[in-house]
Amino acid sequence: GKMEWYYMVNEFNKSMCACTDCKVFGDEKGGPNPGGKCCFAPVHADTRTGKLIYTNAYYYIGHFSKFIKPGAKRIAASTNRAQLQTTAFANPDGSIVVVVMNAMDKKLPYFLWMKGKIAAAESLPHSISTLIIQ
Predict the structure, then answer these.
(1) Which of 12, 35, 77, 109 is the most exposed place for a label (fewest CB within 10 A)?
(2) φ/ψ of residue 9, rounded to 5
(3) How far apart are alpha carbons 108 and 69 in whole angstroms?
(4) Residue 88's beta-bridge partner residues?
(5) Helix (H, G, I), strand (E, B) or coil at 27
(6) Contact 40, 57 (CB under 8 A)
(7) Among 119, 113, 117, 75, which residue's Cα sits nearest to residue 97?
(8) Considering the entire predicted model, what is its pTM?
(9) Residue 33 pLDDT > 70, yes or no?
(10) What is the C-alpha to C-alpha distance for residues 26 and 46, in angstroms, rounded to an integer?
(11) Quick one: which H or E segment has residue 67?
(12) What is the three-class DSSP state of 116?
């Protein structure tokens, strides 16, 4: 849920270069759980029905990896709104990726400022959004 979003954004801003869960796939009880420290997986399987369950983590990890390409470099980004978290990357193709996270229950309008230019945007409740500047 929400805490994993915060973890990823904050750790990227502290120079983390990659992120992965300790396992990608688990059963409906979170297993297997070697060492008892790793109980969550982005995809779960219900062993009784064979149904796959894609958790929120599956989608937000996918969101980051869809837009931030291998070899990307983190660049400075900040917000003056305490309700929004942000991180940004320069991709090898020259595009800039800005990820904005809103953990609040309401929409939050904001402005993206870059090199003296401004673009108005809005962050939906409980969302991660990505802006790509070519």
Answers:
(1) 35
(2) -60, -50
(3) 27
(4) 75, 98
(5) strand
(6) yes
(7) 75
(8) 0.68
(9) no
(10) 9
(11) helix 56-67
(12) coil
